[in-house]
DNA sequence: ATGAAAGCGCTAACAA
DNA sequence: TTGTTAGCGCTTTCAT
């Protein structure tokens, strides 16, 4: 409510021009040959009057808002919220605020959110996109706003991106299951068939079978819509149990699916891994003490956030990024726990 | 990169004034008696030239940014990220963006973040504060920015707030444990002794004992610093096991603590609930399928987000809120699972 | 070494 | 029914 001190107040009470004050405040004093003494006087006055620059006015004038956007499918998914947290930390350190949006895998909503971010002139955008093609990014590309794709990539989109070795991870998981003697494996995935991470994981999964010369049927992959994950998996599992078509092992393609599978396998009193083994992509702390504990492919979440912000900040600052660092693929780990180990089951 | 169409472009190409265009765009055409026909011409031109108002310029001019702030201790804690998600949804529906900050329970950081939000002229602020006293909010109060306190409240602070019945919930939990025949109970809490939620929970816990006429010692409450939760609890539990001073039951005062307790009790091979029972405050989906499944006090997370946003929006819109709705306390539920049921343990 | 003045895009008194 | 003008607070070109 108290009226803000503006740059002209400082200037007036010092008997100098606004220009001078502005220059000093922005550290361009020396550059413009403003005497050390005047600079000091300005700085003291700034202190004394407790002047705080109006960031909105500045943003309006310069186009720099010190804000970055983060768009993911669901910020309440621990995978994304952990990444968000890292990004938020780095952003804060560097004087940036973070605006967060969840798309619910809705392509239109995502587009609207990107549009909003452009309208707000964010200095940069980090996005785990649900889009199908690079074309959807025309507006963003045209806007010239620095951006980094995380988690998922898009065909034909050569923006900076940070992802993990989905292929290798899934391959490890499948190999592990095969090596434990599980042969009839099914995977549960989210429905849209264009999400790069999911597809890479399916490819990696298949490749482990190919290596062993084992045929892979298409029905191996069961897709459930994002907004009906729980229900769909439930129905599938119940049906399988009913019909006696439960697989040897399930490979769950993200953390939600892993949890849901475990939940219903328990509900159905299907012993894990005695009857059905389970491996999930993306680790969560509590998989360590579920019943049974769950084997997973662990992603370097902190690193994803860190690299993404780095890459973004460099672009914002106009630092030339060597092409070799333009596209980052991070390694993943297989964490073997009870849910996928033979002979150890009940 | 393509230069934006501004309000003057529209005005010029239509041969009218900027004012006119502005009024029409903001739906004040009728109000100012602008002819229907002119209004139509303006609107068509807006379409034709694909004009998009510059939200920054508008915000600068009007002071309304269509942005709200959300400050919590840690956005990667599922409790907060779920609330954040709800708030984000409602915000999006109403044309607001959300800037999110995590404080790590750091009072200074929180103050700086509030300062930042004020500087950015957010239209409203939702905050789960780590502050000790209402005084820390002087700046915010002075700024006149609408705000809602969630989860935690502050003594002497009569801003709008949404919390849950922490006292009643904890009392339920303790009564439940007592009714199961557990007498020597310890609670683990986060360290700062001024967090209202934690204190209310401890009070509720005590009240259940008082009712039964059972003495409560002070050592019943073990506090661990926020940034060393895991380690501290680990040490305490190990020491207790070593010295044979493990309690009958543990009441964990938030979801992180619950998980950590379970993790180390398992690591120590202490049977739960056979040797030590466990009840946690704040439910998480996976507590349903941990080993053992964990009894908790479940908070109405969605409702917290909803009420908080409602209360904020009403303030922003200048809707007078009846004092009875100014301070909302939501009911909680006791979810009984394996970890706290006698005779059912191993 | 310092200042005057223009202007970013928009809204809102006040005129006409 | 429509237009003129001022100005939000800041940065920046161009003078001096």
Q: How would you sum up this structure, described in words?
A:
Two copies of one chain form a homodimer. Chain A is α/β, with parallel strands linked by helices and 346 residues long. Chain A has three domains: 7-53, 434 Repressor (Amino-terminal Domain), CATH 1.10.260; 60-163 and 301-330, Response regulator (Rossmann fold, 3-Layer(aba) Sandwich), CATH 3.40.50; 166-299 and 333-340, Rossmann fold, CATH 3.40.50.2300. The first copy, chain A, contains 13 helices and twelve strands. The first copy, chain A, has helices spanning 7-14, 18-25, 36-48, 55-62, 78-93, 107-119, 138-143, 166-179, 196-211, 229-243, 255-267, 301-316, 323-326, and strands at residues 67-72, 97-102, 124-127, 147-150, 160-164, 185-190, 221-224, 249-252, 277-281, 295-298, 327-330, 333-335. In chain A, strands 2-1-3-4-5-11 form a six-stranded parallel sheet, with helices on both faces. Chain A has a six-stranded mixed sheet with strand order 7-6-8-9-10-12, with helices on both faces. In chain A, helix 11 links the parallel strand 8 and strand 9. In chain A, helix 1 (7-14) packs across helix 2, helix 1 crosses helix 3 (36-48) and helix 10 (229-243) packs across helix 11 (255-267). The model of chain A has no long low-confidence stretch (mean pLDDT 94). At the A-B interface, helix 4, helix 5, strand 2, helix 6 and helix 11 of A face helix 4, helix 5, strand 2, helix 6 and helix 11 of B. Chain A binds a DNA duplex (16 and 16 nucleotides) through residues 4, 6-8, 16-20, 22-23, 26, 32-35, 38, 53-54, 56-63.
